[in-house]
Amino acid sequence: MVQQERAERTRQSLMRAAAEAFAEDGFVSTTLSTISKRAGVSNGALHFHFANKHVLAQAVEAAAVDTLRRITRDAEQCQDSALQRLVDATHGLLGSLERDVVVRAGFELTGTAPRRDQAADLYREWQRWVRRVLHTAQQQGELADGVSPAQASAAVVAATVGFEVLGAKDPAWVSRRVLGQYWDLMLPRLAAPGRLPALAPHGSAPHRTDPPRHPHPANRSSCFGA
């Protein structure tokens, strides 16, 4: 049991070291020696857990996908409003990009030419979920007249992916403040007028220094992390 725990700790250290290297230098420029040195283990220990760099990248991508699915699952469990689920999930995703190097590396790997045919496509996973939740919003009468789920999902996915790309150079782009400002602009166009006052652009549990423009106590949920 102790040996298994030690092996798992080594595996996690290698994955994190790889994620840091991939996020900073990209897949092509990163070497296995760089990763093992960052993790503080030998090259032999690295090869014991991961046969090559592609296998290690796949593990990082899979962990990033798991985090994305957890974010969307939490949003679904915590909100009756489909649009609020969408807002909360975008805050959860960008918050993870800001804090979690594995998620950042997962997106970096998805967009890297040598990895495109092998990568777990985080962009596609996100797009599918956004489209699905907007179809639910339409069924629940939450979308404004003339707004289709396809149109709305294209706008939301393009914006959030753009924030991710810009955030790789400037973390301010993935801050709650910037995303809240985006939703301040977007929600009045997206939401049916009667649903708008109940929506919290800065997330259903916003930071006290970043208050929502459309507060509604009944719509708040402690499930959404600060």
Structural commentary:
- It is a single chain.
- The protein has 226 residues and is mainly α.
- Helices cover 66% and strands 0% of the residues.
- It contains nine helices and no strands.
- The protein has helices at residues 2-29, 32-39, 43-49, 53-78, 82-99, 101-110, 122-139, 149-167, 176-190.
- The chain is elongated.
- The relative contact order is 0.12.
- The model is unreliable at 206-222 (pLDDT under 50).
Please describe the topology of this protein.
Layout: H1 2-29, H2 32-39, H3 43-49, H4 53-78, H5 82-99, H6 101-110, H7 122-139, H8 149-167, H9 176-190
Helix pairs in contact: 1-2, 1-4, 1-6, 4-5, 4-6, 4-7, 5-6, 5-7, 5-8, 5-9, 7-8
C-alpha termini separation: 36 Å
Total number of strands = 0
Unreliable stretches: 206-222
Radius of gyration: 19 Å
- How much β-strand is present in the residues? under 5%
The level of helicity is 55-70%
* Count of individual helical segments: 9
Biggest pleated-sheet summary = none
Describe what is shown at a glance.
This protein has 226 residues and is mainly alpha-helical.
